[in-house]
Amino acid sequence: MNLVGSFFGSSIGRKIIMALTGVILIGFVVVHLVGNLQIFQHPDQINGYAQFLHQLGPLLWVARIGLIAAALLHIWAATVLTLENKRARGGDYAFKHTIQATFASRAMRWTGVVVLAFLIYHLAHFTFGVVQTETFKDTPPLNHYLMQNDYRVAGFTVVKAGADVANVHSMVILGFQHKAVAVFYIVAVGLLSLHLLHGFNSLFQSLGLRNAKWSGLLHKAALALCVVYFLGNLAIPGAVLTGKLRPQTAKVAAPAQR
Amino acid sequence: MVAASTPPSLSVTLRVWRQAGPKTLGQFKDYAAKDLNPNMSFLEMLDVVNDGLTIKGEEPIAFAHDCREGICGTCSLTINGKPHGPGRAIATCQTYLRSFRDGDIIVVEPFRAAAFPLVKDLVVDRTSFDQIMQAGGFITARAGSAPEANGLPIAKGVADLAMDAAQCIGCGACVAACKNASAMLFVSAKVGHLGLLPQGQAERDRRVLAMVHTMDEAGFGSCTNQYECSAACPKTISHDFIARLNRDYLGATLRRAFQPEAATTDGGGA
Question: Which residues contact B58 (CB under 8 A, 6 or more apart)?
Fold first, then answer.
């Protein structure tokens, strides 16, 4: 069998695909969260950051296509393996018993499905502006924000002061002022954290990089990652719901009058 | 020292899966097992119940058993949802009635896996394990007289680990306990056992690829890293061997993909 056939055609190969795409997706959600936390700084930060990402142009598309491919492969492997696993059991046990499998591990399939539903809403909300259109970054007045200071990445100015950029800061806050939306986000990232808890542990096993000697430390690291990830994600809608984060309307209106 | 008195007897209700054959529908049937000695093994209790059924002219319960000392891997049964019953590191034949309480209802099912088709009642066909072994669970070695004991040096730690893996008795409890009916623990033990030892090196890559391929073909599920297998294993084989199998499989796949092909198979020349 050739290399592609070995990975896509065998059970262990599919698990390796699952693990490797999982690594990419974990990397993405962590970086995404770190970027989002800039919302707690001056609006220049997250607006400049969003503008910077858009300026990447073709590079942004390379990243997007890579992420879409990783997500699709992850979902494909999960679906195929799940169907095979159901078939492998044949008739179910009348007396169902779990010896020690964790709740997170047994919930992977439905936490995965909820996270997918969340992902679709999230893209429709903040990327395409199909839902909650009135507070989308391309909808006036949120399509104008005047940068007050330079936005720097690694010491280089990537967005200059005075640049007219989209107001992502206000979009996010106005979006989360819908209580149901904010609660859905919190629940979804909670389930995603649970998904990551088993996923992070599991990917090391699938890649053959785990044993009893360090599985304890690995589990603690996974738990810490998931708790910090959840709290970081909880902070944004949480701060909007409790009124700690408010949109800065005065600065939104100013450049629109130019 | 002899016990002062015989332990109090106990009575249980067995809810047993009865199925006349692979093509017929099965169902649970209750049997009252009364006045049992708590020091009987689970299989001895089934013998007693079967004696009663035979006397009444009913079909006895079919179940697999052989050595009755935990080393052959023949006995199976899922007792209250757990292969080999409630204990740890024991087979069904080493499960004693003292593990249960008087008046318990005990659900007894066969190992359920598509790759272990049911033969009758509690007996399943584990030929798929034999097929996996035939695919690579051996070394192609000269079968002469025993070699000099220390002719082939093996580090103590490696020998110990290989012996841990070699303890696998091929009972199939890992498959029965796994939520996905995966045979990964069994295959990893066999691949690990031979792959750790110098005698197994020559065929190491071929072995892991062939055994995993045969495992997939037989219709076993895949590993979701929940480790129900090692928890149910009567020989407590560690799921660390599964990580090792994954590593071996990945390495063998890459090595095979980029290996140049031999021009001839007749030993060169021409």
Answer: none
- Domain membership of residue B78 as a residue range: 10-119
CB of B190 within 8 Å of any CB in chain A?
no
pLDDT at res. B1: 52
Q: Write the residue in B180, B238, B254 that is nearest to A212 by C-beta.
A: B238
Cβ contact B191:B213 at 8 Å: no
Q: Is a pLDDT exceeding 70 seen at residue A190? A: yes
Count of domains forming chain B: 2
How far does A109 lie from chain B, in Å, by closest CA? 11
Nearest residue in B to A14, CA atom: B222
Peptide bond into A141 cis (omega under 30): yes
CATH class of A3-88+103-256: mainly alpha
Domain presence at residue B171: yes
Give B147's DSSP letter. P
* Range of weakest confidence among A130-144, B153-167, B172-186: A130-144
Mind listing the pLDDT tens digit for each residue in A83-137? 999 999 988 999 999 999 999 999 999 999 999 999 999 999 999 988 888 888 8
How sure is the predictor about B95, in pLDDT bands with cuts at 50, 70 and 90?
A: very high
Closest CA to B212 of A9, A89, A209, A205: A9
Beta strands B105-109; B10-18: pairing state: parallel
| Residue labelled with tokens 């008195």 | B5
Cβ within 8 Å of residue A134, ≥6 positions away: none
Residue B50 lies inside a defined structural domain of this protein: yes
State whether A212 and B240 contact (CB < 8 Å). Answer: yes
Indicate if the pLDDT at residue A252 is higher than 50. Answer: no
